[in-house]
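Data deposition worksheet. Section B asks for the primary sequence of the deposited chain exactly as it was used as input, without tags or linkers unless they were present during the calculation. Section C holds the resulting structure in token form. Section D is free text for depositor observations; keep each observation to a single sentence. Incomplete worksheets are returned to the depositor.
Section A, Depositor: J.P.
Section B:
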Amino acid sequence: MMRRMAYAMLAELPPVVGLYVSFFPVLIYFFFGTSRHCAIGTAAVVGLLVGSVMARFYTVAAAVAGGPANATLDANVTVVNTAVSSTGVTDEFKIGIAMSLTFLVGFVQIIMGVCRLGFVTTYMSDPLIAGFTSGVAIHVGTSQIKHLLGLKLPRTDGNFQVINTWKYIFLNIHNTNHVPVIISAICIVVLYLVKAQVNERFKKKLPVPIPIEIVVVVLGTVASHFGKFNEKYNVVIVGKIPSGFPVPSVPTFHGVDVYFTEIIVIAIISFAQSVSLAAIMAKRNQYTINSNQELIAYGISNVFASFFSCFPLAASVSGSSVQESAGGKTQVASLFSAALVMIVILVLGQLFTNLPNCVLSAIIVVAIRGLVLQLLELPKVWKTSKYDLFIWVVTFLITTLVHVDMGLLIGNVFSFFTVVLRTQVGKPVHLAKVSDEKLYRDPKYYIRTMVHNTIKVIGYHFPIYYANGELFTSEVYRLASIKPEALKKHIRRSNMASSSSLSSMNSVKTNVSTASTDRPESVIEVDHAFPVVDPQNIYPMVFKYPLSHIILDLSGVSFVDTVGCKVIKNIISEYAAVDVKVWMANVSDDIWNIFEELEIVPAYKDSIFLTIDDAVKAACEEVENHNVNDKLDEAKTISEKIYDVRL
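Section C:
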């Protein structure tokens, strides 16, 4: 509950707004949501994004420009005080912006749900989300430094927000208030020790986690009240928290053009976080959720909450975990939690008037440690996938150093780019038969494999399309150890040399015959001088073994476009010119249909086999029947090779 008030501070809103977000949306989600364990309320990422929107109005000029809107807000909103902050914007104005933002975010989510766009989060990979949330955690932690040190700093927005904030921190470090520093340090140490060393270590023995956040808030409030921290030491406190619910009011939609982009970003991010958590909880408890219905549930909840001075909601990781560990099986547990929040709003809120802001900041800092510690996973990501590492790092750096919005946008663009790059640079591999099984695998991963001297089996596990067609062709040439064009040139040169030598010998024969007409016994006969070179006869001069067949394993090919089909046709025709047959195996139904449409099946139907083993057997029979190599009967057709194991 205390964390919900703290996240409202991230959104640059009064702490009581965090309680509203933890109450009103829950009432609607209870009826429309499909998750049984998700606790709806505030989230650090959403709070930070809302705070970024508020920062755009942080000038006196913006506040003055919003005068008419302020008048409406003053008449409708009944929460907190009406003092103008150092930024020149009243709390009423900020709450009005939050209400409009919440309504529009909910509207966008409803439209997405109706259009069944719940799948959009599948395009946000785990490395992307991890890099983004870690970057957001840096933003969140940076935004709380001023409270931890007791500094009064201007709120920065736009690109390089973190860098500018730290610049202001160092420029004003001499103004540090030591009392908030001491309070913050004590709170952080206590929170960390209990949460990390007690709750996590003994979570199987504890019926519910120790509510250390509530303990810290209560002790901090009591100490601040009796120690008069605000009066004696200039410690900033929460201030008066109004009792009762806010009066319902209609959002004014002032300045929507200023934060239109954030509407889309918050709608997607809050949904992504919430539905991911809901999916994890559902899998853990063996039930399913409907992502499209979840979108609609979040949207309706946001629209309803926008009339009660709320900012956009998201599923709470900690709240959901507590609800699950406490034995909650349905959203009735969320209603019970909402009832506790209602008691605080109606009765207990005023007791936290003297709560120091630095205590709430300490709660936030400890809460985001898990997001920051995701940085320690980078070595593991590096070993798993270099592409995932680059996605992680690029998203994190752009989010941290430039802006949260740009981090998400560029991270997604870069992620899509790596997908294209992976398919473009993917290389075919040579396959060998594994022992006596009818399996063909990359021999470098197996100890005992069998290969055919005159047959090459080549596997490919990427699509064949316009972006990688040229690379695919060159890699097939490399693995086959024969480049058809080069071989044809060599044959032409050999034939030209043969023809030239033959002409010369014929000339010698004619001269000798003419000069020796009276001596017929001296006539030199040349019957078979330098015959024309046959492609198969030239193989031993250039390659270790003659090649008769290339078998392409297409089991891993997900799709082939028109360019890819032309590439395959070209490979077949190029090798046919040098008497090497190219066959295909393991062609999926989808690829078969494409081949039929593009006339590959009608033209090469006899070159397509159900399995690699079928193709190899047919090739072996053909090699034996046609006696391709003069020494084929003396040599072993199948040779066994031993490869090192590389695990």
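Section D:
Confidence is low (pLDDT under 50) at residues 60-84, 508-545, 628-647.
DSSP finds 28 helices and ten strands in the chain.
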